[in-house]
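tl;dr need the bound structure. longer version: we got a ligand (5-O-phosphono-beta-D-ribofuranose) that a collaborator sent over and nobodys looked at where it sits. i said id run it. heres the input, straight from their email, havent touched it
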Amino acid sequence: MKKVGIIMGSDSDLPIVRKAMDTLTAFGVPFEVHIYSAHRTPDEAGTFAARAREDGFGVLICAAGMAAHLAGAIAARTSLPVIGIPCKSSNLDGMDALLSTVQMPTGVPVATVAINGAANAALLAIQILGVSDPDLAARLDEKKAKDAAAVLAKDKALQDELNG
Ligand code: RP5
C-alpha cells in the first residue's frame, strides 16, 4: 500500500495532527510524519515533496497555521494529491490559515479540510488510496455504516424518551 505523508509546519501543530495519525493507524494505513516549514525550512520541504512519489507516498497531508503556505508550497513540487489542514494557532482563530491554504491559484490545487480537521484529512487520504485498494475502501464503507447506525440509535433513543 502507498504511504501517507504528513508534514506539519511546527511541532506546535502536533496536538492537532495526532487525530490524523490516530485515524490512519485505525485503518492500518502506513504513514510518515515530518516537521518541515514552508518558511523556516523551505529547501527540506521542497525536497521532500519532489521525492515523495518515488519514496512511496500516494497522498500528502500538510498541516500549518498562521500564514499557512506549507500545503501550497508542497503542492507546487508534486503531482500527488495534497490535503491541507489549516491549524488554529493564532489570535485569528485559524481563519488566517484557512484562507492561506484554500485560496490556491489555478493549476496548484490543495484539498482543504476544516480548521483543525485532521481526522477528515486522514479519511480523505484513505478515500484517495481506496480508489485503487478495494479492501481499504470496504473498511471505509464499514465505518460509514457504523457511523450511520450510531446516529439512528440516538434518534431511536430520543424518540423513545419523547414519545414513551
Ligand atoms: C506555522 O506557524 C506553524 O504551522 C504553526 O501553526 C505556527 C506557529 O509556529 P510556532 O511558532 O509555534 O513554531 O508555521
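gonna send this back to them w/ a short note. The beta strands are 3-8, 31-35, 57-65, 82-87, 111-112.
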